[in-house]
Specification:
Blueprint (H helix, E strand, L loop, with lengths): L3 H4 L8 H8 L16 E10 L1 E6 L3 E5 L4 E4 L4 E7 L2 E6 L3 E3 L1 E6 L6 E3 L2 E3 L2 E7 L2 E9 H13 L7 H17 L11 E2 L9 H4 L2 H9 L3 E5 L2 E2 L4 E2 L9 H4 L15 E2 L2 E2 L8 E7 H16 L9 E9 L5 E8 L2 E6 H7 L13 E7 L5 E9 L7 E2 H9 L4 H8 L4 E4 L2
Parallel strand pairs: 1-13, 16-25
Antiparallel strand pairs: 1-12, 2-5, 2-9, 3-4, 3-8, 5-6, 6-7, 8-11, 9-10, 11-12, 14-15, 14-26, 17-18, 19-24, 20-21, 21-22, 23-24
Length: 415
């Protein structure tokens, strides 16, 4: 895909409409897995929403079907809603359109979507009764907008972890181009894929890491790898089948120890160890909501929770089978479903599957209080982000960090 940054000159002249018509409605394609030019990525920043607000930091041109255009000046905005398969625009401009493409005419100012500024081009169209807004942007700018959103701001001595995150995020994006092709974009801007915050999420540190690793990815046997990552492994990472229902074995995704002399690299994480408690009524109510949706068990089966016991663990200590005993028998819950079934009282997923349970029972044998004591945070597969920070503090470089979490892989320059 031709980079839009090469397509748009600094001063956009009378040919703007023709250029937008050429590039604005392109569908995502998966590039051949060979070195080449930096591709663009299409990010669904708003997906099937009731409406979206597009505003201009500076002068913005909007193209509609047929090559015609209208312009927004600084501070102007439009509200876009869906009606059947068309867009209804109100505000600084109005009308009905099949789709709209927005571009800033000043490369130092940006188009804003619901108050969030994005580089590149914004496309808006109606889809399934809602409004979808897609940011088409160069991959390196996308990575710069992901790194801090995913890893947070890091100290200077932790830059190797930031560079490792940049490589992991770039590899993930390239490996998943076209993932949502049927919806008109590649990736979502949320943790469904990777958190992407646009211009606001870019920092000097993120750009240094992005530029220092430009075009660099993780491969095995010349192919991009699947770069899973999570917050905190708690002592050892997980194999894919411990975390995901449909997981195929990969040589580079296996349980890896995070041990260091005197502790673990990720023990600096605020979520290295954690505790959650449910009272008996909370626990029963949560299970009545989660078991039907996750496992197809009728809510009526959960009359009262009599016990929660671990039947099997993996070699890394993660729960692979849990049994929940209710009045009519036992319900088996397997590792990939555990965090979704046993949600916290506030509704959040359980921190991890590296967990132990203690139940306090009443005289009737029903659980009055259940306590979970866990290690780590997230699914546990692939790169441990807090472990990467700990390794960077210990002096490991980005390659050492990544090849520890993805054994047998190497860094390659993809473009």
């Amino acid at each position: 895909m031709t980079s839009l940054r090469r397509l748009w000159p600094r001063a956009v002249g009378p040919s703007l409409g023709a250029l937008l018509a050429l590039a604005g409605c392109a569908k995502p394609t998966v590039p051949a897995r060979t070195a080449g030019d930096e591709p663009d990525v299409r990010v669904g920043v708003v997906v099937r929403a009731q409406g979206v607000r597009i505003s201009a930091q500076g002068a913005v041109a909007a193209m509609r079907g047929g090559g015609s255009e209208f312009r927004l000046i600084e501070g102007q905005a439009v509200r876009i809603e869906a009606a059947d398969r068309t867009l209804v625009v109100s505000g600084a401009a109005s009308g009905r359109f099949e789709s709209l493409t927005f571009l800033s005419l000043d490369d130092r100012r940006f188009v804003e979507v619901d108050g969030v500024a994005y580089r590149g081009v914004i496309e808006v169209y109606a889809r399934e009764g809602g409004v979808t807004a897609v940011n088409q942007v160069g991959l390196e700018a996308y990575v710069a907008g992901v790194v801090t959103a995913e890893l947070g701001r890091r100290a200077p001595g932790e830059q190797a972890a930031v560079e490792a995150q940049a490589i992991v995020s770039r590899t993930y994006a390239l490996d998943n181009l076209g993932k949502f092709a049927s919806e008109g974009f590649d990736l979502r801007a949320t943790v469904t894929d990777q958190a992407y915050g646009g211009v606001k999420a870019e920092t000097d540190q993120a750009w240094r890491a992005t530029r220092a690793t430009a075009g660099t990815v993780l491969t095995q046997d010349g192919e991009l790898i699947s770069t899973f990552f999570h917050s905190t492994c708690g002592g050892a990472t997980a194999a894919p089948d411990e975390a995901f229902r449909t997981a195929r074995p990969r040589r580079y995704l296996r349980s890896v120890s995070d041990r260091r002399p005197g502790g673990y690299y990720c023990d600096i994480s605020p979520r290295f160890r954690w505790t959650v408690e449910w009272d008996g009524a909370e626990l029963a109510n949560i299970l009545r909501r989660t078991l039907p949706s996750v496992m197809g068990v009728d809510a009526e089966v959960v009359d009262a929770v009599r016990d929660v016991t671990v039947r099997r663990r993996s070699d890394a200590g993660r729960v692979t089978e849990l049994r929940i005993r209710v009045g009519k028998g036992e319900i088996p819950v397997f590792g990939p479903d555990l965090r979704t079934v046993l949600r916290e009282p506030a509704g959040r997923l359980l921190g991890s599957t590296a967990v132990e349970f203690t139940a306090n029972h009443g005289n009737d044998g029903v659980i009055q209080r259940l306590t979970a004591r866990g290690a780590g945070w997230g699914h546990g597969v692939g790169m441990c982000q807090w472990g990467a920070v700990g390794r960077a503090r210990a002096g490991q470089d980005r390659e050492t960090i990544l090849t520890n979490y993805f054994p047998g892989t190497k860094l390659d320059r993809w473009y």
